[in-house]
Every structure is written in C-alpha cells, then in structure tokens.
Amino acid sequence: MEQPYTIYEQQMKAKLKRWEIRLQKQPNLIERASKSVQNRINQVIPEKIHNTITATVKGIVQTTLFGIHYMPATEPLKGVSMADRDAKAEELLSLYKKIAAAEGAGAGAGGILLGLADFPILIGIKLKFLFELAHIYGYSTKDYRERLFILYVFQLAFSSSKKKPALLHTIKNWPAISQNFPPAADYANQVNWLQLQQEYRDTIDFRKMLQLIPGIGAVVGAWANFGLLEELGVAGMNCYRLRNLQDKAAKGDSPAPVSPKSQN
C-alpha cells in the first residue's frame, strides 16, 4: 500500500525546489566581477604557494574522508521521521556554529599566524559536522561512498555559481553515479584538488582576510566562521533531505522525483 509523503515532507519538497532554483541561477554582475578579480589574483600568486595550499587541503580532506578519525561513535538513525531528523540537525548545526565562532574569534584575536592556522582547523570542523549530519539522516560513513558524498556537499556549499548546477546534478543522481565509483584509493587520485581548494578559498577569502586585520580580527573571525557553518548547514541539510525523499520514492512509497537537469 502506498504511503504518500507526510505534510512536513511535502513542505520540504517545495522548499527544496526553491533552493534548487536559487542554486542554478546564473551568477549576477557582482558575482561575475568578484570571480574575475579572484581569478586575476590567482594568476599572480606563485605556483609554489598554490601547490602548498593545494597539498594542505588535499591532506586534510583525504585524511578525513579516507580515515576513521571523524566517524561518529553513534550508529546512523533509522526509522526516524524527517521532521525529527531536521530537529536534531538544527541542534547539531547550532552547536557547530558556536564551536566555529569560538575558534574564529580566538584565531582572529591572535593575529596573522593564528589567522592562517584557522584555515585547516575550520575545514576539519566543517567535515566533522558533515560526518555527524550524515548519521542523523541515516547514512553510515563507514561506506567510503558516503564519505565521498560529504565531499560533494562540501563543494556545493563553497563553489562558485557556475559549478553548483553540475554538483547538484551529481547529488541528485547519487545512487546511480556512486555505483560506478572506483575503489576509494583510486578515486582520491581523480579529484581536482587544485580546483577544489581555489573554489573553497575564493568563496571564503573576503571574510577570512578581514579576520587578519588588527583590532577587529576576533569579531570578524567569529562572524565569518559562524556564517560559513550556516551556509554549510543549509547545503548539507537540503542534500540529505533530497536523498531521504528519493529513498522513499525508490521504495515505491510515492511517485519518483522529477529527473534532475543534465550537467553543463
């Protein structure tokens, strides 16, 4: 017997549609101008520095995604309504925003050296949040494909408008796409780590650079990190809501969702 979507799930479907439309909008004039400036800055930065930052990001992300350090101790939640999952996710996000804000304030107050050290620490905080979020929505991070999904969510939250539609396409087609992934070690070699770190850095650059200014660093550091966790929380919760609804449809509980847009 078919079990239709609950009223709450129907509300979330409508909310997700609006979110998808916003993600797939073409970048506005200000965003295009900002990206153009960032691209010119990237061109004048010595390749050695790019390589160092890329290696740092790659090392942090690979250690997180292909190790066991960040795996939650608790098992993924099963048999829980989406409303209850969302409530737990909001509590988790509130906690991690406070953690990130406190870390950002401390780094901002410490000047340039601590401000630079904040870069890898913040990535770790974000990835830890996503690992715990996956378990709230019922997905086990023991499966390396779920850890790769986390990487796509991370990129969706911190990539340019131009890259978001293709990332959203992958996320919406995850069950089919993930079945074709090579072993974890092989997949790690296929990630464009330079592009990932540049997109991430460009997204947070302005806020994080202000953090290095003496006198206002602590306030800006807290504000920047709080806002970045909020953006990640929205992206993460919506991605897992999409998957929960798709999983329900795949079980025959309701009509299958509309096919996602093709990649650009």
Automatic annotation (TrEMBL):
This chain's protein is named: EcsC family protein
* Record organism: Paenibacillus allorhizoplanae
For this protein, the record's Pfam families field holds: EcsC
What the entry lists under InterPro entries is as follows: EcsC
